[in-house]
Every structure is written in structure tokens, then in C-alpha cells.
Amino acid sequence: MTDWDPDQYLRFEDQRLRPALDLIVHIDGSPAEIWDLGCGTGSITALLGERWPTAAVHGLDSSPEMIDRARRIADIDWVLGDIAAWEVAAPVDLVFSNAALHWLGEHELLLPRLTARVATGGTLAVQMPRNFAAPSHALLAEIAATPRWIDRVGDVVRPPPVAEPAFYHDLLRALFSSVEVWETEYLHCLTGTDPVAEWARGTAARPFIDALGDAAGEFMEEYSSRLRVAYPPRPDGTTLFAFKRLFIVGRR
Ligand SMILES: C[S@@+](CC[C@H](N)C(=O)[O-])C[C@H]1O[C@@H](n2cnc3c(N)ncnc32)[C@H](O)[C@@H]1O
Fold this sequence. Notes:
CATH topology: Rossmann fold
Number of domains: 1
Structural class: alpha/beta
Distance between the termini: 33 Å
Strand content: 15-25%
Helix content: 25-40%
Strand order of the largest sheet: 3-2-1-4-5-7-6
Largest sheet: 7 strands, mixed
Bound molecules: S-adenosylmethionine
């Protein structure tokens, strides 16, 4: 299981917040019970609690580091657990997941299983990155496949975990009274040295860093130098990072 570093993840909190807000504004109604699956540090879960202040809000994450950080936020039930094993006694009004379900496979089974835990009149709201063909993600796999690294991290590379938008539409439309699926490509304007590598250090590069231990620095140096070519700094010193994300909102 991937080790998470809450401080590194939160370095890009502002940019990571925007897609979560774009998802939240598409949720109708007044859910009384909300589960945030893969809640991480809990900052988005807290926003759900602010938007629906009378709701019972639960945040679930499999990373002890992330849940420890989330526990600093009051009035939310924080649960250390695996989304794949998540159960509830009765269906709930809102099953929410921002930037987490791409860490789990078999979406053709996972999404219908999560849908079954949504009450009649309730909502499933999901956002996942779909940037796996972009250099930020593809370069990790390319470098891992070179002779220098293949024995150490060749098996860390996995097939792109998020399918085409139409796949989710076809999978879910019979299970909901309405389903919306859409993609947005964000253009993040980043500052600082090697900002795309620093971004990935908090997420997509984590499994490689974990697997490499002491050799992670050398791997990240090679990754960073190739990212500098793929994402050259602009004349004003900023770096533009295009990032595609997929959204699903299903209403039962
Ligand atoms: C990129 S972070 C997103 C955190 C939060 N949802 C947010 O938007 O800020 C992904 C989170 O998913 C969690 N995660 C990944 N696989 C998981 C699983 N199988 N069960 C529970 N949590 C998982 C990770 O521990 C991590 O905290």
C-alpha cells in the first residue's frame, strides 16, 4: 500500500481544491448522511460538512497518515478503512469521492457496488484524474521501463486505471434515474522549481518513491529533468500544467 505524505499533498491544495468544488456544486438536495471515500487529509470532507451542516459526515481513508491529519478537523466521523471493503448498515444519501477511486481497479465492479449503497433519491459524486497519457504520468512509466529501473519498479507501473467517459455512462445509466459524466482539463499555473515533479511527489510518483527507498532521489532527478522539457517554465517563471479530470454525478 502507498505511503502518503499529507504535507507534500497539501503543497498544491489550492489547485487540488478547484475540481472538488466543481463536483460539489453539481450535487443537489439536502443529504442527511454523507460518506467521503478516500478523504485524505479531510479538507474536502470539511467542505461537505460546511455545505450541509446538519448532515452526519464520515470520512474514510486507508492511509493512517492521512486519517491522523484529518482527525484535527472536528465534528466528522473519521474512519481508517479500505474503500474496497466499505460497508454501511443502510444506504446513504451521498457517496462522494474526490481524486481517490483511480487508486482502485475493476471499476466495472466497484462503481455498481458503490451505487448499491446510495439511497433512493441520493447521489453518487465522483471525480478522478484522467491524465495518464500526459507526460506527468507517462514519463513515470517510461523511466520505470528503462534498464536502469525496470527490475526495481517495472511492476509498479499499472495500466491506466480510469476508462473513457462513455464507459462510466454506459455502466451506470441503468442504475440511476440520471447520470452526468463530463471531463474538464484544468490549466494549473504552478510556481517554484520543478513544480510538476513536486506535484507528482505527492500523488502519482508515490508508489515509485515507496518502492525505491534510497534510490528514489536518483529516479526523481531523472523524472524532473524530463519534466522540465515537457513543461518548460514560461517567461514569467511559472509552469503551466494541463490536467484532465473525469466527473460522474449519478442521482437515484
Ligand atoms: C489523492 S488523495 C485525495 C484525498 C482527498 N479526497 C482530496 O481530494 O483531497 C487519494 C486518497 O485516497 C486514499 N486511498 C487510496 N486507495 C484507497 C483505498 N483503497 N481505500 C481508502 N482510501 C484509499 C489515499 O490514502 C489518499 O488519501
